[in-house]
Amino acid sequence: MSRAINRLSASAVKSASVGKYADGGGLWLVKREDGGAQWVLRITTHGRRREMGLGAYPDRTLKEAREVADHWRAVARQGLDPIKERERQRREAARNVHILVDVAQDAFESRKAELKGDGKAGRWFSPLEIHILPKLGKVPVAEIDQKDIRDTLAPIWHDKADTARKAINRLGIVMRHAAALGLEVDLQATEKAKALLGKQRHTVRNVPAMNWRDVPAFYQSLDSGSLTELALRLLILTAVRSYPLRFMHLNQIDGDVWTIPAAAMKGRLGATSDFRVPLSAEAQNVIAEARKFARDGYLFPGAKRGVISDMTMTAFMNRRGLSERPHGFRSSFRDWTAEATNTPHDVAETCLGHTTGSGVERAYRRTDFLEQRKVVMDRWASLCLRDARNLAILNAQ
């Protein structure tokens, strides 16, 4: 290249005093009084003279400054304004740096309609928020690999296996969401991370459940008329999960049928029909007692606002010295139907709100077994009210 272009040398740049020094082709070194220095490219585009900063010296060497200057001169020869083009590229690069926390939030927002209560309880997002985002939230999603995921979840992979499983599964959904947005991500990263983490040692334990033979005595001990005890009684009588019961609204009750919105039923997300729960005479009595506590239409309101916490009934059973949990009464009910009744499998499972059979079978089977379930729930209520001494007689029926 001509000396008219490359006028400066590395040693001259290093020893230069305060002032401006031309390297040729519009490239200048500007030495300041404070000891700092920077590269500037003077260029004319669209009839206007422009000065473009190319970085500080010595962070950018003379050789690097010349290479950058060559690039932007070529841009100018294409009829583009180098400064505006650089700004455009920076904006585009910023848009392309999608960090995990932003993609995760977007994935969550797109799935809210599928979640109970629009995900307000936080159970879908919390595994990510607590165990993934603190370490990987600021990382561009395209840069996340199996080693990052392994290192993030290794501390809880065995000790909190269920939580870790939920976290990695949610992360997999987020990665697929990122791919749908057109980002280049490794869709196998979570599966590779599982291979690196190894098989979980944690043994899944079922929710402690009360033996169905002990349910009558416990049910009859709930006799104070408190809101918590009424909620427990209705939970036992209907064999539903705590979420729909806690959010039970008066406008969902029509005589001896309680209709739970489909969105509130776990395992029935996206269902086009709600779930009907037959109410025994005893269940209707409990509802009548609970009405005096109703606020804003909710049968079991919280002390200050909203509805009772999902820990309210658990805490009550803890105070009673019981290891069993409220959710376990669903198992108590199911064991009773299997051991002490001739309830058909599909009817018993439908009592719990479970779907049975293949998709094709369900497409052709339109019944929800409401009448059959009324009979079963009436017998269950009778069991709950029966004196324990007469339990053997009931079992023989």
UniProtKB/TrEMBL annotation:
Gene3D superfamilies: 1.10.150.130, Integrase, DNA-binding domain (3.30.160.390), Intergrase catalytic core (1.10.443.10). Keywords: DNA integration, DNA recombination, DNA-binding. Residues 205-377 form the Tyr recombinase domain. It comes from the Bacteria. It holds the Pfam family Phage_int_M. Belongs to the 'phage' integrase family. PANTHER family: PROPHAGE INTEGRASE, PROPHAGE INTEGRASE INTS-RELATED. This is Tyrosine-type recombinase/integrase.
